[in-house]
Amino acid sequence: MARLQLRNLEKTYGNTFKAVHGINLDVEEGEFMVLVGPSGCAKSTTLRMIAGLENITGGEVRIGNRVVNALPPAKRGIAMVFQNYALYPHMKVRSNLSFGLRIQNVPKAEISAATEEVARILEIEPLLDRLPKELSGGQAQRVALGRALIKKPEVFLFDEPLSNLDAKLRASMRVRITDLHRRLKQEGKPATVVYVTHDQTEAMTMGDRICVMKEGRIMQVADPKTLYMRPANLFVAGFIGSPEMNLMEGRVEDTSDPVFSIGGQSVRLGRELSARLSLSSATNATVGIRPQHFEVAGPGDESGLSGRVTHVEFMGHEVYLYVDLGDARVIAVVNAEAYEAMDMSSDVVRLRPNAASVHVFDTVSGENISLERCAA
Length: 376
Hints:
The chain is of the alpha+beta class. It has two domains: 4-235, Rossmann fold (3-Layer(aba) Sandwich), CATH 3.40.50; 244-361, CATH 2.40.50.100. 26% of the residues lie in helices and 32% in strands. The protein has ten helices and 20 strands. The chain has helices at 43-51, 93-103, 108-122, 137-149, 167-186, 200-206, 224-229, 234-239, 271-274, 336-341, and strands at 4-13, 17-27, 32-36, 58-63, 66-67, 78-81, 155-159, 192-197, 209-214, 217-222, 246-253, 259-262, 265-268, 283-289, 294-296, 305-314, 318-324, 329-335, 348-353, 359-361. The strands form four sheets. A six-stranded mixed beta sheet has the order 6-7-8-3-9-10, sandwiched between helices. The chain has a five-stranded antiparallel beta sheet with strand order 13-12-11-14-20. The longest helix has 20 residues, at 167-186. The two termini are 31 Å apart.
């Protein structure tokens, strides 16, 4: 395995449209890096430039100690798993797995041993004599994974490999892929992985680190917990987390004991926020509060923001409350048992933010201005 480095990587189509804007990224040896972002953010374009399937307009792709810009895909030491599996339909699973080794003229005994080993690891031994048309989606994806694994590449590249599977199978394959990555590392054969997805659940559950992209630019690179607890900007805050973070535009005053005003209401954000708030005076700002970080005030408690519940979603162990605050609509997530104990004879509730988890963003630049000394 090898370290992957992107240096000032650019992609321009024609003379007008710039898809990738000089990004820099280091993927350490044995690391599972996820590129995530909405459709059109150039994550797949970036992956294809790493693979050699897209020409590089500017910058460098370095795998190990080599700059690979001018090398064809077969010479880069990579293996790619595609969204549509890309299996040869006329070949049985055994031949699909071994094809890459056969064209390299690897001895038959080595090919046979490698095929059996990969089939064992992926638990597809019973499938070796089947054609691709006789496989389920999950089985076909495991064969595609095995075809990459058998080549023992320096870097594995995954391009939205689970998007064609149903929700249950996607969850199963997420676990299977991450278990395989962990097992290879434990066996002293660490796999360097770059995994592209638009699904933040895949990103948060699979990645050692996550690179969040928007319009061909990197917004933040961090481990899942840091992205969730310390988003660098409004885009990351709104993209990471389900339900997404509540973002409310208003005014922050009295920075020694911050008060947030919105729609004629005010709520204290907590003195601890002032220690990490890079703000010297009252200003218009966007306050971010995750749905899980609201508390519903009890009877007689006049603290927090008053709003009207417009919709309730029962999700099993928790309940989503959609609350209209006048100038903003927010979501609060409460425990199902706590919801049952609430007095809902009126549709009016008061929401109190968990002060330690409040974020303040500059409305113009979008930067998180409440990260100083913020606990991760």
